[in-house]
Amino acid sequence: MHNPDVLIEALRGAEDKLTRDADVKATKVLSDRRDEIFDDPATPVGGNPRGDVSIVEFFDYRCPYCKQVLPALQTLLSEDQSCALSTRKCPSRAPIRHRGACRPRCAAAREVRGVSYGQ
């Protein structure tokens, strides 16, 4: 092969597209299931249950990314009294590299006064 950069760039483009597609799909699921995610009365809420910011953490006990996020969430709750935190167990049998919902950028969905933001 005379120009491997072309192949490398094509692979990066394909990977970026897959990531974007997964993000769009996750955002749609969060939007479609908003009430189930944010307003489930059976889910315990930490922090300020009446806060104007609701954080929902999707986690897996075995996920190293989820373990990395925990101290930041604990600090946030202690410093910001307007945050509510609920957690959803998100077990996955897939390898960790495929757990999109458990990567730090997707670990939380945030709601600020009725406007949802998928992270």
Description:
The radius of gyration is 17 Å and the shape is elongated. It contains 3 helices and 5 strands. The chain has a 5-stranded mixed sheet, sandwiched between helices. Strand 4 (108-112) and strand 5 form a beta hairpin. It has one domain (4-118): Glutaredoxin, CATH 3.40.30. The longest helix is centred in the N-terminal third of the chain and has 29 residues, at 4-32. 42% of the residues lie in helices and 21% in strands. The chain is of the alpha+beta class. The N and C termini lie far apart (39 Å).
Core attributes:
119 residues; alpha+beta; Glutaredoxin; five-stranded mixed sheet; 21% strand; elongated; disordered C terminus
Short description:
This protein is of the alpha+beta class. It is built from three helices and five strands.
Can you tell me the CATH architecture?
3-Layer(aba) Sandwich
Low-confidence stretches: 101-119
Strand order of the largest sheet: 1-3-2-4-5
Structural class: alpha+beta
In helices, the fraction of residues equals 40-55%
Please tell me how large the radius of gyration is: 17 Å
Query: Largest beta sheet, briefly?
Result: 5 strands, mixed
Order of helices and strands: HHEEHEEE
What is the overall number of helices? 3
Question: N- to C-terminal separation?
Answer: 39 Å
Instruction: Name the CATH class.
Output: Alpha Beta
Count of discrete domains: 1
* Average residue pLDDT: 76
